[in-house]
């Protein structure tokens, strides 16, 4: 029996999983550990992807479950540290334009304030470009739940970013 | 109007590029996964060399004694093979003894019986001579 093509899986999906995990954990070391955990799991269970139609959705589900487990395991002290560190560990690439950088930093902070469930759906919809149907498959949640989590999450982001966003729009 | 604003906001968010995964993670993570793969699926066992290794471990304390014992067993086997009865097919294919030999054999048997004086042999001889007849015929013989 042949094992999974780990290199192909890594090259095809690791970037997306990294961004998703980083958005949930807000910690590079934790993100690395979780990513490694996923690939070790794939290596140990070669049949895990045997009947999977959408690899990306399946891997996102693995990543989501691993991240949620980690978040639940974290102590209160870690959660406090996460809140303070939210502005530092951003899931976004650094921007050359100072205004853009300010917006990205604010966006990262606003995302960190969302519950993990809403943050997951918002991330997958906005930065993975998944449809609600695909998100329901990846996170194993009903369609209405996915849609409502997205709507609540987006409303909160908009509320927090409104002053900065409107200022940037005027400047443009 | 509100909906358009929301869509514009969504587009703005989705245009924000995500941080790139560090390049050196690839080798480290794939190496860790590769190690897990090896642990999960160990190398296939080379049975002949494993058997030789096991035997050498077992016999190593007294190799000469084990070799001597093996030689003795080989000798016993060779002797057994050489003294074993011929096969039934081979036995059937052999010729019957010649008639002269059979006559000589019978004479020797008779002589032996006379020398021993066995009752069984006498009885056997008598049984050959005696021929039972009907009772009426025997009565005629007695009357005559």
Task: Please describe what this structure looks like.
The complex is a heterodimer of chains A (about 170) and B (about 140). Chain A is mainly alpha-helical. Helices cover about 75% and strands about 0% of the residues of chain A. Chain A has one domain: Arc Repressor Mutant, subunit A, CATH 1.10.10. Chain A contains 8 helices and no strands. In chain A, helix 2 (about 30-45) crosses helix 3 (about 55-75), helix 3 packs across helix 7 (about 130-140) and helix 7 packs across helix 8 (about 145-170). The longest helix of chain A is centred in the C-terminal third of the chain and has 29 residues, at about 145-170. Chain A starts with 5 loop residues before the first helix and ends with a helix. With about 140 residues, chain B is mainly α. Chain B has a domain at about 100-145. Chain B has 8 helices and no strands. Chain B has helices spanning about 1-15, 25-40, 45-60, 65-85, 90-95, 100-115, 120-130, 135-144. Chain B is elongated. The model of chain B has no long low-confidence stretch (mean pLDDT about 75).
Notable traits:
heterodimer; A: 172 residues; mainly alpha; Arc Repressor Mutant, subunit A; B: 144 residues
Short overview:
The complex is a heterodimer of chains A (172) and B (144). Chain A is mainly alpha-helical. Chain A is built from 8 helices and no strands.
